[in-house]
């Protein structure tokens, strides 16, 4: 419950705390910050030209926030699944290299 609440309030912080921050926190943060800026601009009366009214801008920004939240929850679930080594985990399906496959470029180097 705490993870879900953190993902709803601050998706990048949730991914940094419970997920894989090195690869996904920045893109999720971009969506979340864009939604915050859009909500602030829409509530201040900005209309983004004649493309969207202020209500449409706030609605689009809320959609961006929901996308960031869903993305953060998916990342946290995937990391949890990998750590538990479930059947659908990517760690459960890793292929270990055989002893003769230690250097894949050895064949190329021997031909030169």
Topology:
Elements: H1 2-9, H2 11-18, H3 21-43, H4 54-84, H5 106-111
Describe the protein:
Helices cover 68% and strands 0% of the residues. It has five helices and no strands. The protein is elongated, with a radius of gyration of 22 Å.
Portion of residues within helices: 55-70%
Oligomer designation = single chain
Shape: elongated
Question: Which regions are unreliable across 5 or more consecutive residues at pLDDT < 50?
Answer: none
Write a brief caption for the model:
68% of the residues lie in helices and 0% in strands.
Fill in the keyword field for this structure:
5 helices; mainly alpha; single chain; 68% helix; 112 residues; elongated
